[in-house]
Design goal:
Layout (H helix, E strand, L loop, with lengths): L1 H6 L4 H11 L5 H8 L3 H13 L3 E4 L12 E4 L2 H10 L3 H5 L3 H9 L3 H17 L2 H7 L5 E8 L6 E9 L6 E8 L7 H9 L8 E9 L5 H9 L3 E4 L1 H4 L2
Parallel strand pairs: 5-6, 6-7
Antiparallel strand pairs: 1-2, 3-4, 4-5
Helix pairs in contact: 2-3, 2-5
Length: 238
């Protein structure tokens, strides 16, 4: 809050807005519903928060022109944690029940909080020199893909996507799971199915990023199909 006061004369609007975004309101209409502020004030505040890099606009790869798919997200991890968890429990924390609040309301959701960070790590991994050498084509963009699946009629995210030039139209795609259970058959089949969504790019490699390893079925599948890559936490930190 001190940082917000240094930047803005009246930080209440910005604080409410950041709390709304941290709790899942990524579009202006959702922010209106959560904060009660009109859209003009919200748009102005969003622009200011973008300028000081507390926020960033999550623009999906290959769908940059579709504004309906763009989302506002907290860029700074400290702000994301504070407005996502601390603000909600500030009364309990100030009364000395911070430990109890953490155990009951924060700890069970830490994997969810880290999921976004894990996706960023996975995207960075696709830039690795060894990855580029293996596939023989340079990546020009790496990010997240988001659009409605024309077959399943639901909004789909692909956590990590790397694409080559528009002339070559080659791609790498990845799925991230920051959970206490290994990636299994269902996650692999889901990722393989999503290759059709990045058309006309041809997927050359599939990457599965896991906090807790992989089932035996997945390991055997990866051994048989060299285009499938299993990336553990240890591998990410190499």
């Amino acid at each position: 809050m001190n940082l917000l006061r240094q930047e803005f004369r009246s930080p209440s609007l910005y604080s409410s807005l950041l709390s709304a975004i941290a709790s899942g309101a990524t579009r202006i209409k959702e922010m209106q519903d959560k904060t009660g502020f009109d859209s003009a004030k919200i748009v102005q505040a969003l622009d200011e928060l973008l300028k000081i890099r507390i926020l960033y606009k999550d623009i999906p790869l290959l769908n940059e022109k579709n504004k309906r798919l763009q989302q506002y997200r907290l860029k700074n991890g400290m702000f994301r944690f504070y407005f996502g968890y601390v603000v909600k429990g500030i009364n309990a924390i100030e009364r000395g029940y911070g430990k109890e609040y953490f155990e009951a309301m924060v700890k069970p959701h830490l994997h969810e909080f880290m999921g976004e960070v894990f996706e960023e790590m996975a995207q960075d991994y696709l830039w690795k020199e060894e990855t580029l050498e293996k596939y023989g084509f340079p990546l020009l963009q790496v990010g997240k893909w988001r659009e409605n699946d024309p077959i399943k009629k639901i909004l789909i995210d692909i956590d990590a996507v790397g694409i080559s030039s528009p002339e070559k139209k080659e791609a790498l795609i990845g799925e991230c799971k920051f959970k206490n259970k290994p990636i299994g058959k269902e996650e692999v089949e889901t990722l393989l199915d999503r290759a059709r969504l990045v058309d006309p790019y041809q997927v050359k490699g599939y990457f599965l990023f896991s906090l807790s390893g992989f089932t035996d079925w997945v390991k055997e599948k990866a051994e048989k199909e060299p285009s499938i890559h299993l990336v553990s936490m240890e591998e990410l930190y190499k």
